[in-house]
Amino acid sequence: MPIILSRNVTIRCNSTLYNLVKSKTTSSLLYNNSQICFSGYQVKRHIFGLGNITATASIPEQKYILNKTVIAPVNIMYDVVSEVSKYQEFIPYCVESFVNKRDPKTNKPIEAGLRVGFRQYDEKFVCKVICNCNINSNDKTVIDNNIKNDEVKTVVAESLTHGLFDVLYTKWTIKPHPTRTNASEVELLLKFKFHSRLYNSVSSIFAKSVTELVMNSFSKRVGFVQKQQHLRSKKL
């Protein structure tokens, strides 16, 4: 017989914590070789056997900066980074990428998003996107004395949806390599903070690796784009 509950509850079953969340479905758990049914509830397992540990305002956002030399002109790297709709073709765990709005003058995205899937997790993010071809000369973090402002390009994305994150911000800075022709110096800045204290703790373990994975994915994509351009030019 299904168990009828009056509110959302948390139970421990076989040393694991579960959430019972009101739903139109009927879910069940296996307990001591017996199947227990919960009518009108969805059973959600707590990650790592812990509950939803809420972050407090005292937890600082995490920040990672990664620099890489990419063998590609600035314009090609900029086009690959700014075209969010193509991300699903080469970024690991990105199952969907889309652009909601574009700048009518440049056709670059101004609102775009991703859906990331990994095992049982599936999250969708919509971001405000700012694609700049020209950098303000007051931005001393990216301007080099030997590089003109109009040679430096940036792509900034800041999350507009806050279901999982309190803060999610990325900034790509792309400029010509000072000594190598047809090469770019690329900087990826990532800032984020989860709502959950647990997620913030766990993410500190693998965030650097994820940042490196993303950077390498873009580097490989740029190589692919250049190869395709070369093949097309040979056919002409």
Automatic annotation (TrEMBL):
Q: In its UniProt record, which GO terms are filed under biological process?
A: cellular respiration
Q: Which residues form the Coenzyme Q-binding protein COQ10 START domain?
A: 72-218
Alphabetized Pfam families for the sequence: Polyketide_cyc
- Signal peptide feature range: none
Q: Which Gene3D superfamilies did the record assign? A: 3.30.530.20
Enumerate the CDD domains for this protein: COQ10p_like
| GO cellular component labels | mitochondrion
Q: Which family does it belong to?
A: Belongs to the COQ10 family.
Can you state the subunit structure given in the record?
Answer: Interacts with coenzyme Q.
What the protein does?
A: Required for the function of coenzyme Q in the respiratory chain. May serve as a chaperone or may be involved in the transport of Q6 from its site of synthesis to the catalytic sites of the respiratory complexes.
What name goes with this protein?
Related to Coenzyme Q-binding protein COQ10, mitochondrial
Organism per entry: Saccharomycodes ludwigii
